[in-house]
Write a structure and sequence with these properties.
heterotrimer, A alpha/beta (274), B alpha/beta (140), C alpha+beta (338), A: 274 residues, 6-stranded mixed β-sheet, C: 338 residues, alpha+beta, 2 domains, 4-stranded antiparallel β-sheet, 11 helices, globular
């Protein structure tokens, strides 16, 4: 156990003991890896961990607790999702306590049957802009100040997106792991027959992925949860990054950076203001 | 038989008069062009444009009213922003941006429409068939 | 156990080459460090040095999407044919092969066998390859689906020094062997000794992992510990990874649609964890809550399928354990109730 973990556990324990929150949403150990964990009693705080296996964006769970007092362990990108979700009226800031942890990057989880190559920092972490959440009720500093060793040459990236889309199983793991995919009737799950069928159709994967990208544009905080959840490792974060670039260029907008900045699609500026 | 690009043209209510006018003046579309009239260009969901490409369109054009000609500027600007975003997405996945264009057409600009759309179709002919369906095949 | 045969490494290479030239052969192919079943264009593409494929070979028997029938003007009504041609599915692990025999018990049960599954099952010869390096997530010992022999294959290959021991498990397996008689010979005493040793070692290794008695799992229903499942269900994000990656999961959805002037009905994979799985047209939903759906998955696999079909709905491959984004682990259920 390192110092930041000890600090995290102490904060969580105190919040639960004092009844400030009902639950602390964090991570716990699970075999060689890590998984989300909901601590509801002070003694459960001892199970909380914080390490580079913590790729999952816990802000995904906040929608189930709207109105209830919960605390959440948040990396930089996760914290930005909290901010953006508040702006989209999905989360009530008053009832969420953010325990920000300083992040040096996470590992992508090794999928079933991989030929056991060395663990690498996720390539989406290499584009990280916020190691610490912009919203923080508590801040847990990292033990080591340096970023995780980024291996040179983060793997060849073939730009053949259509081939990559063909691998897609339409398992919806990307959608269901994302804090921003909260539509109860998702248009690409097949509830709206005019877009895609409910059952996977290879041709429609084109529409599936492009529609998802369009819906993520300007909202995605590039936490990489979708990419890490994906069983066939489609580099989704790269795609959404390109569209976020558009918002950066046209509107100087970065999602989740501040509570004051309204999301451009929600606020339309008349001619002359961009 | 030479390949002819399949083009979908979304026309907003007003610009559709311009498009019709071009037809009345004997404009011969050099391609397989389907026009779809919508009340306003801003009603076009970008996902539907994506769907058009998936279903076989080699290009999608949108005719819309110039922002300066509208009482409210917003709708055309919205369309413009959406198309720009979608062009960026298409470019990222390797689909040429010239396959998705906006044409600013007023209700009396049939001549302008003919000229512009011909030019754009020539460009699409250069680019060749998009064939999304042929490229998205089941991996056996 | 029938008469054991032996084929050398060279012999197996030749066998594969011959098969590829005359039939469709599907085998694990490597790409970016992962293995997936693909149709071989040439024998050299096959990769037999792997732990397991990312996804099970279920899709060759139960496609993710298949058209069940279509009806068009002039064309009339037509039911899509099954697989249509013979194929050899090569290099399946015993657990994944056992899943096929479980699916046989469920989907081929009289009086209404699934004709699509049946035709594919009939036309595909399954050749399994015993495990020699089980993965961290594997627990085939609990359901007796490996690591050496499964129960759904036509031919079992077990790698030993110099080649493979071969056990024909069905008439289709014998047909394959007899077609290439010259490549096989009877296994001798040394071969059998190596086989016994390998079997003993692996059984011991697997047995030391998850200790559970599968027969006890039927009590899941009566002793459903709400607390345990409530906790775990909180994390579940209701994607469909576990159901899609599972070699046994067979639940399906159907879809009617119109395309190019023809009416189609398609059938394909669904997941019981989806919010709309049990939602009916009236709005009534017997499993409206996530906990209900979550509990159902385990009850169905570990208690209801055994009761109804005399087979277990899990083979211990470990894919759901590895792929679940929320870290849900069926082994915890097994340890606690098994």
């Amino acid at each position: 156990m390192n110092r930041s973990e000890a600090e995290l556990r102490s904060i969580a324990r105190s919040l639960l003991e004092k009844g400030v929150v009902e639950l602390v949403i964090g991570y716990e150990s699970s075999g060689k890896s890590v998984r989300p964990f909901f601590a509801s009693r002070p003694e459960e705080a001892e199970r909380l961990v914080w390490n580079p296996e913590c790729w999952f964006n816990l802000a995904r769970y906040l929608r189930a607790f709207k109105g209830r007092r919960v605390a959440i362990v948040a990396k930089g990108c996760d914290g930005r999702s909290v901010v953006e979700l508040v702006k989209e009226n999905q989360v009530d800031k008053g009832s969420v306590v953010v325990i920000a942890v300083e992040c040096n990057g996470v590992f992508k989880p090794a999928k079933y049957g991989s030929s056991g190559s060395a663990r690498r920092v996720a390539d989406y972490c290499e584009r990280c802009t916020t190691r610490v959440s912009p919203v923080a009720d508590y801040l847990v500093r990292s033990d080591n100040q340096g970023s995780l060793k980024r291996t040179s040459g983060s793997g060849e990236f073939s730009k053949d997106w259509l081939s990559m889309f063909q691998r897609c199983l339409k398992c919806m793991a990307c959608v269901k792991s994302c804090p921003f995919c909260y539509c109860t009737e998702c248009s690409i799950e097949g509830f709206k027959p005019e877009l895609v069928h409910r059952l996977r159709d290879t041709r429609e994967l084109f529409t599936f992925h492009l529609t998802r990208a369009l819906h993520m544009a300007g909202r995605c905080v590039e936490c990489g949860a979708c990419e890490s959840a994906c069983p066939v490792e489609i580099p989704l974060t790269r795609l959404y990054h390109e569209l976020n670039e558009w918002f950066r260029e046209k509107y100087s907008y970065i999602p989740g950076r501040s509570f004051e900045e309204p999301p451009p699609p929600l606020v339309f500026k008349e001619a002359g203001e961009g | 038989m030479a390949w002819k690009p399949r083009i979908i043209v979304f026309t907003c209510w007003c610009s559709s008069s311009g498009v019709d006018q071009a037809g009345f003046e004997g404009f011969k579309y050099p391609s397989n062009v389907l026009t779809v009239r919508v009340p306003c260009s801003a009603i076009i969901n970008p996902s539907l444009i994506v769907k058009a490409f998936e279903k076989g369109a080699d290009a999608v054009f949108i005719t819309a009213c110039r922002p300066s000609e509208l009482r409210r500027v917003a709708p055309s600007r919205i369309t413009e922003a959406r198309v720009s975003l979608l062009q960026r997405l298409l470019k990222t996945i390797g689909v040429d941006e010239d396959r998705l264009r906006i044409l600013w057409i007023s209700s009396n600009e049939g001549g302008l429409f003919s000229k512009e759309v011909t030019r754009m179709i020539r460009r699409v002919e250069e680019l060749g068939p998009l064939n999304i369906e042929g490229r998205m095949v089941e991996q056996v | 156990m029938s008469r054991m045969l032996f084929i050398s490494e060279e012999g197996l290479k030749l066998l594969l080459e011959e098969l590829v030239s005359s039939k469709t052969v599907i085998a694990p192919v490597e790409a970016d460090g992962y293995f997936d079943f693909k149709t071989l264009r040439h024998a050299g593409e096959a990769s037999l040095n792997y732990s397991n494929t990312r996804l099970p070979p279920k899709r060759f028997f139960l496609p993710q999407r298949e058209v069940v029938f279509k009806h068009g003007p002039g064309a009339g009504f037509s039911q899509e044919p099954g697989y249509g041609f013979e194929a050899v599915l090569f290099g399946v692990r015993p657990c994944d092969a056992s899943a096929l025999s479980i699916l046989d018990s469920i989907l081929l049960k009289p009086p209404n066998p699934d004709p699509f599954y049946e035709s594919r099952r009939r036309s595909i010869t399954v050749v399994s390859l015993s495990c020699t390096r089980p993965m961290e997530e594997c627990f085939c010992n609990v359901f007796e689906t490996g690591p050496i022999r499964g129960s759904g294959e036509d031919l079992t290959l077990t790698r030993i020094g110099g080649g493979f021991l071969v056990e024909a498990r069905s008439s289709k397996g014998w047909v394959l062997v007899n077609g290439f008689e010259s490549l096989f010979r009877n296994a001798d005493v040394e071969h059998m000794q190596e086989y016994s040793e390998l079997s003993r070692r692996l059984t011991e290794e697997m047995g030391s992992r998850v200790k559970a008695v599968k027969e006890r799992l039927v009590r899941l229903e009566e002793t459903l510990d709400e607390g345990f499942f409530q906790q775990a269900a909180q994390r579940c994000v209701e994607c469909s990874l576990c159901s899609f990656a599972c070699p046994v999961c067979y639940c399906f959805d159907t879809e009617d649609y119109f395309e190019k002037n023809c009416y189609f009905r398609a059938k394909g994979w669904d997941t019981c964890l989806s919010q709309s799985f049990t939602r009916m047209a009236s709005g009534l939903d017997p499993r409206a809550s996530r906990v209900d759906r979550f509990c159902h998955r385990f009850c169905h696999k570990l208690s209801r399928i055994p009761l109804a079909f005399n087979a277990y709905g899990c083979v211990g491959c470990g894919r759901c354990v590895s792929l679940c984004p929320a870290g849900i682990d069926i082994r915890e259920v097994l340890r606690r109730w098994g």
